[in-house]
Design a protein that fits this description.
Elements: H1 8-14, H2 38-50, E1 57-61, H3 63-75, E2 81-85, H4 93-113, H5 115-129, H6 137-145, H7 152-159, H8 164-168, E3 175-180, H9 190-196, E4 201-205, H10 212-215, H11 217-226
Parallel strand pairs: 1-2, 2-3, 3-4
Helix pairs in contact: 1-11, 2-3, 5-6
Length: 227
């Protein structure tokens, strides 16, 4: 994810042993009014890594997962490990064209309801859906900040056509892919992505779909602890 606030539940679960940097990328969080650019986002993540006192574990989910894969492919030993979720669906070829069709449907829904109204609906739904997941006040705080739905199409189109599986093949650090048990079609590609990264492991969060970093952050915390 590209909004730093969405990682608050994870940061609370990691405890004092970890120092966590949670930057907002363009189009999200405090930078919601800025235009998202794929290459600029990679540069900003790389700059955050460069400021770390020692090689960090790079963590990303959904959009942030795909961005983290791309950064890790060129980061070499500048990072100590990689934990990424919701990013094992190829976005090039036939799969990419199918994603482009769903993008048109999502844009139609947003145009029908309006971005602000859709954002409010998502925020209320998120609080209800997470009521049983022990997120407490974090769910309310994240819902209040909103989900930047107006940026969704822009960010997806920035990813479409890129060969993330090929990028994964260049990664040489310990890697864990995290997916929700119900996250389809993302899960269709998880075996291929795990094979692409030598020694990569797969962690499945039970009972949830897309957005494990928000819905079941303990799975991310456990993966980071293991690395």
């Amino acid at each position: 994810m590209a909004n730093g606030a969405t990682w608050l539940p994870l940061a609370r679960r990691l405890g004092p042993r970890f120092s966590v940097a949670m930057p907002d990328l363009a189009g999200h969080g405090r930078r919601r009014g800025e235009r998202f650019c794929f290459d600029a986002a990679l540069d900003e993540i790389a700059a955050t890594i460069a400021r770390a006192q020692k090689p960090p574990i790079l963590v990303g989910d959904s959009l942030g997962g795909y961005l983290a894969l791309a950064v890790a492919a060129r980061a070499g030993d500048a990072i100590a490990g990689l934990v990424v979720g919701g990013c094992t669906y190829p976005l090039n070829g036939v799969a990419g064209r199918l994603s482009a069709l769903t993008d048109l449907c999502a844009d139609g829904l947003m145009n029908l309801l309006g971005a602000a109204r859709l954002d409010r609906l998502l925020a209320r739904s998120f609080v209800r859906l997470t009521a049983s997941l022990d997120l407490g006040s974090d769910a309310i705080a994240i819902g209040a900040r909103g989900f930047a739905v107006s940026t969704r199409g822009e960010t997806l189109r920035a990813l479409l056509g890129r060969d993330f599986l090929a990028l994964a093949q260049a990664i040489r650090v310990p890697t864990v892919f995290v997916n929700g048990a119900l996250d389809y079609p993302i899960r269709f590609g998880e075996s291929a992505f795990c094979r692409a990264v030598p020694g990569a492991r797969l962690a499945i969060a039970p009972g949830v779909g897309h957005g494990v970093g928000l819905l079941y952050p303990q799975t991310f915390a456990d993966a980071i602890e293991r690395l």
